Amino acid sequence: MTTGDESKGVDRLLGDLGRWAADARASDAASARSRERWLRRQAAEEATLPGVALDLAERGEPVVLKTTSGRAHRGRLVAVARDVWVLRSDASDGVPRQDGIAGATFVATDAIASLRAQPGGSAKPTPEAAGARPVPLAASMADMLAELAVEHPRVRVLVLGEPEAMVGQLRSVGVDVATLWVAGEPPTTVYVRLGSVSELSVLGSG
């Protein structure tokens, strides 16, 4: 083989190597894209509503939470527990702020219908960002409301099957019952089964 033929052979080999390398890179890129799509699909299939809620809570996103009764609550999620979520209302929603606990709403998970980020937020929840994450708080609604009752706050309580909310002072919380003191003529004490509470909003100190 002449020198020219050898040079052509080397050039051809280098060209082949370049094409093989390009093919390998393309194959690797296709495999990576395929794996990414598979991971996104797997995450989407494993997504849970509490997982979405946790993502939004961690980012401090303002949200709109709708209940099965059709009520809408706007604010930021501050706790996602096994049977209750807690929102802190935005200052613009008209809920009074006389003390540190006003503006909090406790919503039973069974009463939650939908959740979305408020328009204008910095990000939107996506299925791939909301996998099957465990709920970090083991505290129940009873646990949280028992702590809250120490302050004897004024609250608005909505129970399942009742179109009108009760407004009164939360006096105590037991294993399965909350005690409200409701003003009126005459004032009365109401005992509410905790399992029937769909939402409780804190209006201010007692």
Main-sheet strand order equals 5-1-2-3-4-10-6-7-8-9
Q: What is the count of β-strands?
A: 10
Percent helix range: 25-40%
Tally of separate helices: 3
Structural class: alpha+beta
Mean pLDDT: 79
Report on the biggest sheet.
10 strands, antiparallel
- End-to-end C-alpha gap: 101 Å
- What would the principal axes of the Cα set say about the shape? rod-shaped
Poorly predicted ranges (pLDDT <50, ≥5 residues)? Answer: 92-99, 125-129
Protein model, in words:
- The protein has 3 helices and 10 strands, in the order ααβββββαβββββ.
- The protein is an alpha+beta fold and 206 residues long.
- β2 (72-80) and β3 form a beta hairpin.
- The radius of gyration is 28 Å and the shape is rod-shaped.
Primary descriptors:
206 residues; 3 helices; 10 strands; alpha+beta; single chain
Please sum up the structure shown.
It is built from 3 helices and 10 strands; from the N terminus they run ααβββββαβββββ. By secondary structure, it is α+β, with helices and mostly antiparallel strands.
Give the topology:
Blueprint lengths: L2 H44 L2 H11 L2 E6 L4 E9 L3 E6 L14 E5 L3 E6 L23 H9 L4 E6 L6 E8 L3 E6 L5 E6 L3 E8 L2
